[in-house]
């Protein structure tokens, strides 16, 4: 009897979970012959008469594909929580990279672990990065978007994409977070001067060496910008579980505004 009850409960819960995932609308952005699939979550009781912040979330290499679903595996549930939707009503965008592409312009040597990277961040962007930038240009131009509160974050390959897109669109983002990512610190020269970023890393990461996150945090702070660094001593590459569980991540992120920064600059003058 107990097993039958559990089965019934499972059947009842499953449609709710599927329905929750479908709260992210399925969309695709087409530019000439290229297509970027993405999912977008609008706030509850969305109104075009209001203004909302926008968050671009960049997934990892394991979630690449063309099903327009896998990119929601890590992070998707966080923004569906009732508490999150009540406290931080925002437009959340999860684009998906095809199997053969990458967010960051980097050559990855997968012959051994940890992986080895040859960054080309200062060269032309990948097709997926170019499309993501164009998509964000389109979305943030809408009247219902608070252009002072646009954010980006990502994990692993998406962390690399986060470091890179901040150099390609420095004027767009008020703040960012990068989880177990990596980059060539040369991109920092193109970051906005008042950038706020929170970097997360597992100390036992044997896929992307922790030294990359430590180096980026150090170099960003040395440049006069503001980088927070959280290290998890017992985490391997899946430090996104700890990072996305940080109770202060979203309050910190959504408190950042270009408008506040511009007002601070005026006060300093």
Can you put this structure into words, describing what you see?
This protein has 269 residues and is an alpha/beta fold. It is 32% helix and 25% strand. The strands form two sheets. The chain has an eight-stranded mixed sheet with strand order 1-2-4-3-7-8-9-10. Strand 7, helix 4 and strand 8 (175-179) form a beta-alpha-beta unit. Residues 1-18 and 264-269 have low confidence and may be disordered.
The number of E-state strands comes to 10
**Classification by helices and strands:** alpha/beta
Radius of gyration: 19 Å
Widest sheet: strand order? Answer: 1-2-4-3-7-8-9-10
| Most strands sheet | 8 strands, mixed
Number of helices in the DSSP assignment: 8
SSE ordering: HEEEHEEEHEHEEHEHHH
As a percent range, the share of strand residues is 15-25%
Keywords, separated by commas or semicolons:
269 residues; alpha/beta; eight-stranded mixed beta sheet; two-stranded antiparallel sheet; 10 strands; disordered N terminus; disordered C terminus
């Amino acid at each position: 009897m107990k097993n039958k009850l559990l089965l019934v409960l499972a059947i009842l819960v499953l449609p709710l979970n599927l329905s929750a995932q479908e709260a992210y609308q399925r969309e695709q952005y087409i530019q000439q012959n290229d297509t970027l699939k993405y999912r977008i979550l609008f706030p509850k009781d969305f109104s075009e008469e209001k203004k909302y912040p926008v968050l671009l979330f960049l997934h990892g290499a394991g979630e690449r594909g063309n099903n327009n679903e896998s990119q929601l595996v890590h992070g998707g549930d966080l923004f569906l929580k009732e508490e999150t939707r009540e406290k931080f009503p925002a437009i959340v965008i999860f684009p998906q990279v095809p199997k053969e592409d990458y967010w960051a312009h980097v050559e990855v040597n997968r012959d051994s672990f940890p992986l080895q990277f040859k960054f080309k961040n200062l060269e032309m962007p990948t097709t997926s990065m170019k499309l993501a930038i164009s998509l964000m240009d389109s979305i943030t131009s809408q009247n219902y978007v608070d252009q002072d509160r646009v954010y980006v974050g990502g994990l692993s390959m998406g962390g690399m994409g986060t470091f890179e897109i901040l150099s390609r669109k420095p004027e767009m983002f008020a703040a960012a977070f990068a989880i177990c990512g990596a980059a060539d610190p040369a991109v920092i020269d193109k970051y906005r001067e008042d950038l706020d970023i929170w970097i997360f890393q597992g100390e036992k990461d044997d896929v992307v060496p922790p030294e990359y996150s430590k180096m980026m945090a150090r170099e960003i702070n040395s440049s006069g910008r503001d980088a927070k660094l959280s290290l998890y001593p017992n985490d391997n590459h899946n430090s996104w579980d700890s990072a996305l569980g940080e109770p202060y991540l979203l309050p910190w992120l959504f408190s950042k505004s270009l408008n506040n920064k511009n007002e601070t600059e005026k006060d300093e003058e």
